[in-house]
Amino acid sequence: MYENRQQYEAIVRKEVVFREWAEGHRIEHGDPGECPNCGMPGQYDIHGLGFPPDVDNSIYYSTVFNEWRCRICDYRRIH
Ligand SMILES: [Zn+2]
User: Fold this and answer.
1) Ligand 1 centroid – CA 60 distance (Å)
2) What distances in angstroms separate CA 16 from CA 22, 46, 71, one per listed residue?
3) Ligand 1 center to 68 CA (angstroms)
4) Total domains, the chain
5) How far is CA 22 from the centre of its chain?
6) How many whole angstroms separate alpha carbon 53 and alpha carbon 63?
7) Looking at residue 1, what is its pLDDT?
8) How far is the CA of 54 from the centre of ligand 1 (A)?
9) CA of residue 64 to ligand 1 center, whole Å
10) At CB < 8 A and 24+ separation, what contacts does 61-69 make?
11) Ligand 1 center–CA 26 separation, angstroms
12) What's the domain range around 14?
């Protein structure tokens, strides 16, 4: 699925609200959390920009899989 940056940000803003409901607290870019898909700890990448290499794992919303996942999911090909 192709989307431009504005469309991606609109999707992520909506999905962040759903995650906030699920977790019961606000989520900001860079906040620590657990990947909703695999449970590994990471940091929320809400802007879709990635993090510097010193961040071990980033949690982001994938419009390919239509779910929250993380770099470890990608590496292990967890779906
Ligand atoms: Zn994961």
Assistant:
1) 9
2) 10, 8, 18
3) 8
4) 1
5) 14
6) 23
7) 52
8) 18
9) 14
10) 61/11, 61/12, 61/15, 61/16, 63/1, 63/3, 63/8, 63/11, 64/1, 67/36, 67/37, 68/15, 68/19, 68/35, 68/36, 68/37, 69/35, 69/36, 69/37, 69/38
11) 20
12) 5-76
Q: What is the pLDDT of residue 53?
A: 72
Ligand 1 centroid from CA 4, angstroms: 24
pLDDT score of 65: 92
pLDDT in tens, the chain (79 residues): 557 888 988 999 999 999 999 999 999 999 999 999 999 999 999 987 666 777 789 999 999 899 999 999 999 886 6
The verdict on pTM exceeding 0.70 is yes
Under DSSP, the state recorded for 39 is -
